[in-house]
What does this fold into?
Amino acid sequence: MSARRFMTYSLKPLFLALLLILPVPFSTLAAVDMEELLPPNSCGARWKIDGKMLFYDRDSLSDRINGEAELYFPYGFDRMAAARYTPEKSPGAGMDVEIYRMGSLLDAFGMYANYRQKDGSQLPVGAESNLSSSQLFLYQGRYFVHIQMTGSDAADPNALAECGKAAASRLPGSASRPPELSVFDRPEVAKATARYLPQSLLGYDFLNRGVITDAIVEGSNLQIFHLLGTTAESASDSFDRYRSQCSQVKIDSGGKGASFLEGIDPLYGPVIVLRKGTCLAGALKFSGKKGITAFLESLCR
Amino acid sequence: MESTEKKGMNRRTFIKVGMVGTATALIAPPAFADTLQQMAETERSAFPKPVYRTLGRTGLKITVVSFGAMLTPEPEVIRVALEQGVNYIDTARRYMGGKNEEIVGKAIKGMRDKVFIATKTRPESKTKADIFLDVETSLKALGTDHIDVIQLHHVTDRERIFYPETREALAQLKKQGKVRFCGVTTHKNEAEVLNALTGDPDRFFDTCLVKYNFKSDKEVTTAIDRAASAGIGIIAMKTQAGGYDTTGLGKISPHQAALKWVLQNPKVTAAIPGMRNMTEYREDIAVMGMPFTYADLRRLDRYAEAIAPFYCSFCGTCETGCPRRVEISTVNRALMYAEGGYRDISLARATYAELPRQAKAATCVDCEGCTARCVNGLDIAAKMERARAVLA
It folds into this structure.
């Protein structure tokens, strides 16, 4: 290929494309970025887009979801794209699809876990999903998706599932769970019960950022919490502050710089907490203590 | 009781208080600042003796500081409040996809007779079928056989208040004993909604949960006054003007002052601040029985003054004076994300990165002097310099 022909056939289209893109403000590109995440024409076979796609940021999210917006901010909410899809033959029915861009994969999981319904079923969509008769929640990468059916046809799980698949297929990011949850990948931990709280774990502001989950240890139902992002100093500080909240406190050395706290939490009753290096983990709401210290040690290993 | 005039401070300024930290001390005369610092420390106390007011014509006597449950992930925190005498909880069908009602349901287990429950239908629910479905689902999630106050969520105009099918559904639910009283919630066009409730010849709705804080317009205060005089129970929400980030505040906390400001109005039956944890709970609940004092007034005033040199309202007026067309308001918003209550540098940089190159603060370095002027006296050149240092 001659140099002239190379310019004509290879570089010219590139220049034209650049010329088309350059005048577009970056903020518009960002909106386009979110717009591309929503299914453009239909979400599932029967459900066609109805009206415009809508976009929200931190300043405007409350215009759509009222004060509930404040739930999203600690999880690094950045932007949301929303659209309504309606079936041709059922006037009044609708499916509202909302895609939230959160701070991280862990944040997206955190929002998902906040909304996950106990009696919902799982679908092979996104990293995890939760389907009930009129709602579908899922997350993938840093995106949390909420699909809500409304109107007289408000119970159509098949349509929800179909729309969820269509939405998830457009999301960037892998369909994997946050690596921070891997500490709970053990048989004692109940499935689909983990929650991530970016602040105020257990309702205490000094227990910042952590995961809490249900478990069964040696036949006893209990809850386990594990702080995230701790340094040895912050773990020690949180341990001391938690100790000051509890009554009937007994501190045992766990060896190698580890400390066990047993006491009565004013909100939860008996608790056992282990601090070991940068790890702070605890158990509460248990009926028997057997096996708990060993389990906590295994978490902090 | 005298109504206090609107303070020169809006939602964003309140959030942005974190940005200035203890800047009050730098701006105010030193002696005054010291005194202010001391008196601005959050007042702590054991659980105060509950203070009750009557919720309009419902006749329910509820604690003036009641519980907004939306942000509370642990039922145990709500439970403590109930055990200490708080007797009104506000939740909603929509919050957490209905899961917030389940949390409240766990908190009230075994104590249903000691607490009034208020929840809300979904904002989009209008038809009979929708309303019935919402209420039945709420009853199940809350684990109760009745809801004390069912509220239409997020009403923004008078039309929805008079929608016949909604009223028929609610009337039927009342007859069945599944709901006791009906209300609405509003945080947009609040005065219009309140006035519509007041003027309703059928007196169908008994309560109004309304956005009300030191930033509210005078017409909202007037509408509240009229509605309360007509027997409508007034509950205030968003009493903190949307902000609750105290990062960098040191000992100064305006939250109690903001809550007291609302409760000083006797036409307001109660406020329902959201309480995430025990610290926020203790701080809010301590307000019961406290008077709104001159010190509180000064506290709110001083905050507004303290943030004035730092705060951009994003009005964009200054941008007309910039020959280079720098998007000053967006640059300031990005800076706010970095240094304000948000403290989110990644969001700040992402916001800044979205600006076209010529609209960024870097463009300012080619200018000999800044000709853009802020109507509130903000030093724009200094802000742009700060943005270049923090966001570039």
Observations:
- Residues 42-292 of chain B form a domain with the TIM Barrel fold (CATH 3.20.20.100).
